[in-house]
Amino acid sequence: MQKCERCFTNFKWKQIFKTHIKKQPIICKECDTEHVLETSSKTVLLILELPIFIFTIFLFDKLYMSFGYYSLAALFLIGTPSLLFPFFARFKSKYRTNYKSDY
Q: What is the distance between the alpha carbons of residues 71 and 5, in angstroms, rounded to a whole number?
């Protein structure tokens, strides 16, 4: 998990997951520094979720599954990368300065 660039406080899994869902920056609870999600993390999430989504559409089309089973399969296959996202998400401070000299 990543830390705040200014005060080195660890971000919690819950904070990062909420950031992913709400598409909002993380604000450190200790020093109020705002951190935004890096573009590379957004790209990694898209690379993980897009093939899985296409696979579920293909699976639904070929197997003629009922909507309930299709919904469960799609939720599982798309939800799994979302739940793992906080472990590889990278954030950067919105105001890139050398905070280390402050302390």
A: 40
